[in-house]
Amino acid sequence: MDLAEALCSNPSVREFTDEPVSDEEVAALLEVARFAPSGGNRQPWRVAVIKEPSLRRALADLCGPVWSEYLAEGITGATPFSVVGPPPEIEPLGPQPNPLLDAIESVPVVLVVAADLGQIAMMDKDLARVPLTGGASVYPFVHSILLAARDRNLGGVMTTFLARAEPAAAPLLRLPDTWALASMVFLGHPVRRATKLTRRPVSDFAVIDRFDGVSFG
Ligand SMILES: Cc1cc2nc3c(=O)[nH]c(=O)nc-3n(C[C@H](O)[C@H](O)[C@H](O)COP(=O)(O)O)c2cc1C
């Protein structure tokens, strides 16, 4: 597949057929993704292939309340878990359906991607805001997994809800103290694949010279 076409046609897939994905296929995806860029080429990503059904259930159960909270904040019109401004007043929603979490035992592939923080140069760590740059040494790797999956007619989604439950998830995963949870990735054969992605046009987010400048594109 043409690279530009692949980049423009890789929607999130959250529903999978019963067709299994072999360990060899998962290994092949990681084999491609390992060529992702990272700061200083330190490759701080670590991957756990989660097979044990009870561990999958435990991780999903930790994500459930995060999902409900995310929806409750979103209903207010706020960006959920925004670091800008005060948190919104929310009405707790209670448990909410989620196709990935509800059937996590039957998702063909569940990966947890962690980052070894000791191997990340966090360029913005001393600024008076939350650091952003560190994730850039891990998320290109995750995206490469999804693109490699697309190349094999698999589909999937990068999620981050487990990161909010990191303190509880860490002992379950035996996550070393200086590592952080970056993503839980779900993969499989798509039940269906969206053909058209909804994204803002370039003129909406690109400008010439300065961020209050005229739009580019
Ligand atoms: C950093 C990041 C975090 C995400 N976290 C979640 C998540 O926790 N749960 C989920 O279902 N999808 C998650 N997604 C998937 C997004 O919802 C998805 O990329 C977006 O809605 C666009 O969907 P589309 O590519 O199908 O158009 C995440 C995506 C990214 C890039």
List keywords for this structure.
about 220 residues; alpha+beta; NADH Oxidase; four-stranded antiparallel sheet; 4 strands; about 15% strand; binds flavin mononucleotide
Structural account:
The protein has 217 residues and is an alpha+beta fold. The protein has a domain of 147 residues: NADH Oxidase. Helix content is 34%, strand content 13%. The chain has 8 helices and 4 strands, in the order H-H-E-H-H-E-H-E-H-H-E-H. Helix 3 packs antiparallel against helix 7. The longest helix is centred in the first third of the chain and has 23 residues. Flavin mononucleotide binds next to strand 3.
CATH structural class of the domain at 3-51 and 108-205: Alpha Beta
- Gap from first CA to last CA: 26 Å
Within CATH, the superfamily of the domain at 3-51 and 108-205 carries the name NADH Oxidase
Shape: globular
The low-confidence parts are none
So how many helices? Answer: 8
Which helices and strands, and how do they pair?
Blueprint: H1 3-8, H2 23-33, E1 45-49, H3 53-75, H4 99-102, E2 109-116, H5 139-151, E3 155-159, H6 161-164, H7 166-173, E4 179-188, H8 202-205
Helix pairs in contact: 2-5, 3-7
Bound molecules: flavin mononucleotide.
Flavin mononucleotide (FMN) binds at residues 11-12, 157-161, 194, 197-198.
What is the structure about, briefly put?
The protein has 217 residues and is an alpha+beta fold. Helices cover 34% and strands 13% of the residues.
